[in-house]
C-alpha cells in the first residue's frame, strides 16, 4: 500500500507486514550473496522487469544526445503530423517533435523517481528504525506521527504547497513527494526492526556497548537490506506516479518537459477530440512501462530473496 | 477494545488538528502575499483603491490581528461552518460551493472504492488457486496499478467516447438539463458517470487483486496450512482459513488506500471535467482562490478521517483480536 500516493497515484505493493520476513531476507545459506545471484539470473520476472527499466533508462539518458535540437519544446516540424520516418512519434499541434519530448520526459521521470523515492526511503528508514529499535515512548510518538501523515491525503497537501509556494522544478517536486510518501514504508520497516531487535547478535552488540545508530546500521540494516531495497523500488515507482499527477494538474516543472506535462498539454489542446492519439499514448505508455517494470522486478526480487516463494 | 478506540480517536483528533493548522499556516507563513496577489488580479490602478482593497482583504483574512487571535478565530469560524467567501464565484460562501460539488465526488468515490475492493479481492483469491487465471490476472494487475489515473481515463475517453461514441466525454450532466431529483437528470448523470467511475475502478482493481493473490499464497505456505494439510483437512477448508487471514491486511490496506484514491478522483475528475471537488481544486488553484482551496482540503481530510474510522469499526467486527485488546500495540 503506497502512497501514492501512494499515489500515490498509488500502487498497492504487497503488504508490508507480511513480505519477506527478515529471517528469509537474510538468506541463511553459506554464501548468501552467491545464492541470491544464482536465483536472480534465473528469475524471468526480475530479468524482464530489469531489462525494460534499463532500456527506458538508456533511452532517457542517451536519447537526447542523438537529437538535433537541444530544446524538446522547439517548433521544428509540420503541425499535427502522424508518426512517420522523420518524426518517429509524430508532432504536436504546434509542430513539436513528440519523440524528443518523450526522451527528455523519461529523464525527468527517472530523476523525480530517484529524488522522491530516495528521500522517502531515508525518512522511512530513520523513523522506522528508531521507532522499532528504541520502542517505548519514542515508538509511541513516531508511530503517531506516521499515522498522522498516513491519514492526511498527500496529493492534497502537495497541491496546496505547490499552489502557494509556486516553486516548480523537478528537484523541488521530488523533495515534496519524498517528504509526504514515506509513512507506509516507515511502518513496514518498524515492524521488521521490531522482530530483529531481540535477536542474539543484536543483544551481543548492545552488551559490547555499541550505540543505537551503530547497532541499527551495522547489525539490523544489513540483515534486512533486501527488504529495504524492495521498499525503495516501490517508493521510486510511487513517486513517478504522483509526479505525473501533479504535472497533469498543471503543477509540474515550468521549464523543460516531463511525461506528465506531455499528457497535460495533450489534454489541454484537445488531442483526444482531434484524434491525435500519438500525442497522449506514448507518455502514458512510458510511465506505465517504467512503473510496471519496477513492480514486476520487485516481485522477482521477492522470489530471489525469499526461499518460500521459489519453485514455479 | 476501549484502548484500541481511544488510540485511534486520538490519532484522528490529532490529524485533524494538524490538518487545520497546516491549512491555516500556509497562506500566512509562505513566501508570497495572497493579498497582493488578489489585488494584482483585480487590476486596480488607483493607489487609493489599492489601499482600500488591501485594508478590506486584511480585515477579511483577519491579518490585522495578532497571530494567536487569528488562529483561534480560524477555529471558531470553522466550528460555525464558516469557510469564508469564495473569490472565484465571488459572493457565494465556500461551504455552499463545496456542498454543490460534494455529491458528485461521493457518487464517484464510494462505488469505485468498495466495488474495486470486493472485485479485486475476489479475483486475487481466484488467481491464487488457478494457474491459468494467475498468469492473466497478475500481469494485467501490474499494468493496471502502474498506470497513472489520468492516463487510463484519457484512454477510456478516447476508446469509448471519441471512437465508439457510447459515453459523453466531459461534464457531470448534459448542459440542457437542469440538475434536480428527477428521472431525466439522474439517467443523464449516470450516463456521464460511467467513464470516470470505470477509470478509478480499473486502477484500484489491479492493486487489490495482486495484494490478495500474494497474501493468499503466503497463507497457503504458512505452517498452519501445512499442518492442516498434513492432518488431511480438505483443501476447501484450508483455503477458507487462508482467505480469512489474508483479508485482514486487505482491510488495513483499504484504509491506507483511501488517501491515495482521493487523489485519483481529483485527476480523473479533471480529465472528464466532472463537477466534483477535484475540479473545484483546479479552479481554486487557477483563480488563486485561497478560501476555496482551504475549504476543499479540509473537506477531503474530514472525508478520509470518517472513512478510516468506519474501516476501524469494520476491523473490530472482522478481527477478534481487536475485541480482546491484544492488537493494541500494532495499530
Low-confidence parts of chain B: 326-331
Assembly type of the shown chains? heterodimer
Name the helicity range of chain B: over 70%
- Using the CA coordinates, give the radius of gyration of chain A: 22 Å
Largest sheet of chain B: none
> Regions of chain A with pLDDT < 50 over 5+ consecutive residues?
1-30
Task: Give keywords.
heterodimer, A: 312 residues, 14 helices, 68% helix, globular, disordered N terminus, B: 331 residues, mainly alpha, MetI-like fold, 2 domains
What do these coordinates show?
The complex is a heterodimer of chains A (312) and B (331). Chain A is an all-alpha fold and 312 residues long. Helices cover 68% and strands 0% of the residues of chain A. In chain A, 56% of the residues are buried. Chain B is mostly helical and 331 residues long. In chain B, helix 5 packs antiparallel against helix 6, helix 6 (131-146) packs across helix 8 and helix 7 crosses helix 8. Residues 326-331 of chain B have low confidence and may be disordered. Chain B contains 13 helices and no strands. Chain B has 2 domains: 34-82, no CATH class; 95-330, MetI-like (MetI-like fold). Chain B is globular, with a radius of gyration of 24 Å. Classes of the chains: A mainly alpha (312), B mainly alpha (331).
Question: How is the secondary structure organized here?
Answer:
The complex is a heterodimer of chains A (312) and B (331).
Chain A: H1 22-25, H2 32-40, H3 44-62, H4 98-134, H5 136-151, H6 154-165, H7 170-180, H8 183-196, H9 200-207, H10 212-223, H11 225-251, H12 259-268, H13 271-274, H14 277-305
Helix pairs in contact in A: 2-14, 3-4, 3-14, 4-5, 4-7, 4-8, 4-10, 4-11, 4-12, 4-14, 5-8, 6-7, 7-11, 9-10, 11-12, 11-14, 12-14
Chain B: H1 2-29, H2 34-42, H3 47-61, H4 67-79, H5 94-127, H6 131-146, H7 149-163, H8 183-221, H9 223-230, H10 235-272, H11 277-286, H12 290-318, H13 320-323
Helix pairs in contact in B: 1-12, 5-6, 5-8, 5-10, 5-12, 6-8, 7-8, 7-10, 8-10, 10-11, 10-12, 11-12
Amino acid at each position: 500500500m503506497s502512497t501514492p500516493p501512494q499515489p500515490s497515484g498509488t500502487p498497492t505493493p504487497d503488504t508490508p507486514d507480511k513480505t519477506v520476513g527478515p529471517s528469509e531476507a537474510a538468506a541463511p545459506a553459506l554464501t548468501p550473496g552467491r545464492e541470491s545471484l544464482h536465483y536472480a539470473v534465473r528469475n524471468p520476472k526480475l530479468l524482464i522487469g530489469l531489462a525494460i527499466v534499463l532500456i527506458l533508462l538508456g533511452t532517457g539518458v542517451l536519447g537526447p544526445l542523438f537529437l538535433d535540437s537541444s530544446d524538446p519544446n522547439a517548433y521544428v516540424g509540420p503541425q499535427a503530423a502522424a508518426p512517420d520516418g522523420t518524426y518517429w512519434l509524430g508532432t504536436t499541434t504546434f509542430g513539436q517533435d513528440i519523440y524528443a519530448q518523450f526522451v527528455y520526459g523519461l529523464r525527468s521521470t527517472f530523476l523525480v523517481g530517484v529524488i522522491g523515492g530516495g528521500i522517502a526511503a531515508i525518512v522511512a528508514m530513520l523513523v522506522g528504525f528508531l521507532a522499532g529499535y528504541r520502542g517505548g515512548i519514542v515508538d509511541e510518538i513516531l508511530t503517531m506521527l506516521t499515522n498522522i501523515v498516513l491519514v492526511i491525503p498527500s496529493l492534497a497537501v502537495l497541491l496546496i504547497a505547490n499552489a502557494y509556494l509556486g516553486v516548480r522544478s523537478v528537484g523541488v517536486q521530488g523533495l515534496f513527494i519524498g517528504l509526504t510518501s514515506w509513512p507506509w514504508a516507515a511502518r513496514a520497516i518498524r515492524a521488521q526492526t521490531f522482530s530483529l531487535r531481540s535477536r542474539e547478535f543484536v543483544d551481543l552488540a548492545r552488551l559490547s556497548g555499541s550505540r543505537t545508530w551503530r547497532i541499527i546500521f551495522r547489525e539490523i540494516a544489513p540483515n534486512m537490506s533486501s527488504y529495504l531495497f524492495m521498499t525503495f523500488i516501490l517508493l521510486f515507482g510511487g513517486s513517478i506516479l504522483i509526479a505525473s499527477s501533479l504535472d497533469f494538474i498543471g503543477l509540474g516543472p515550468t521549464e523543460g518537459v516531463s511525461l506528465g506535462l506531455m499528457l497535460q498539454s495533450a489534454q489541454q489542446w484537445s488531442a483526444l477530440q482531434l484524434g491525435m492519439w500519438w500525442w497522449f499514448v506514448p507518455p502514458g505508455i512510458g510511465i506505465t512501462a517504467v512503473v510496471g517494470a519496477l513492480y514486476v522486478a520487485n516481485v522477482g526480487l521477492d522470489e530471489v530473496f525469499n526461499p518460500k516463494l521459489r519453485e514455479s | 477494545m476501549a484502548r484500541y478506540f481511544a488510540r485511534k480517536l486520538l490519532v484522528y483528533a490529532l490529524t485533524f488538528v494538524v490538518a487545520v493548522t497546516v491549512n491555516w499556516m500556509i497562506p500566512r507563513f509562505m513566501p508570497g502575499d495572497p493579498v497582493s496577489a488578489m489585488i494584482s488580479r483585480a487590476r486596480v490602478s488607483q493607489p487609493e483603491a489599492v489601499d482600500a482593497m488591501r485594508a478590506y482583504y486584511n480585515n477579511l483574512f483577519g491579518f490585522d490581528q495578532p497571530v494567536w487571535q487569528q488562529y483561534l478565530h480560524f477555529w471558531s469560524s470553522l466550528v460555525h461552518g464558516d469557510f469564508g467567501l469564495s473569490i472565484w464565484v465571488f459572493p457565494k460562501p465556500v461551504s455552499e460551493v463545496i456542498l454543490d460539488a460534494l455529491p458528485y465526488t461521493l457518487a464517484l468515490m464510494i462505488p469505485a472504492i468498495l466495488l474495486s475492493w470486493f472485485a479485486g479481492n475476489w479475483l486475487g483469491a481466484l488467481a491464487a488457486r488457478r494457474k491459468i487465471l494467475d498468469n492473466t490476472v497478475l500481469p494485467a494487475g501490474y499494468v493496471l496499478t502502474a498506470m497513472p489515473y489520468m492516463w487510463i481515463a484519457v484512454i477510456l475517453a478516447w476508446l469509448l467516447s471519441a471512437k465508439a461514441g457510447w459515453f459523453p466525454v466531459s461534464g457531470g450532466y448534459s448542459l440542457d438539463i437542469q440538475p434536480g431529483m428527477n428521472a431525466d437528470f439522474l439517467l443523464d448523470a449516470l450516463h456521464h458517470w460511467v467513464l470516470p467511475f470505470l477509470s478509478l475502478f480499473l486502477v484500484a482493481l489491479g492493486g487489490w487483486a495482486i495484494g490478495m493473490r500474494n497474501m493468499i499464497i503466503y497463507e497457503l505456505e504458512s505452517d498452519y496450512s501445512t499442518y492442516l494439510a498434513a492432518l488431511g483437512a480438505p483443501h476447501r477448508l484450508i483455503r477458507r482459513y487462508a482467505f480469512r487471514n489474508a483479508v485482514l491486511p486487505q482491510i488495513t490496506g483499504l484504509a491506507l488506500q483511501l488517501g491515495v484514491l482521493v487523489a485519483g478522483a481529483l485527476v480523473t475528475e479533471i480529465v472528464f471535467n466532472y463537477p466534483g471537488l477535484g475540479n473545484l481544486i483546479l479552479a481554486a488553484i487557477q483563480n488563486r482562490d485561497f478560501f476555496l482551496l482551504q475549504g476543499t482540503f479540509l473537506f477531503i481530510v474530514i472525508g478520509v478521517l470518517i472513512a478510516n474510522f468506519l474501516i476501524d469499526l469494520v476491523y473490530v467486527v472482522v478481527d477478534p483480536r481487536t475485541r480482546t485488546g491484544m492488537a493494541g500495540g500494532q495499530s
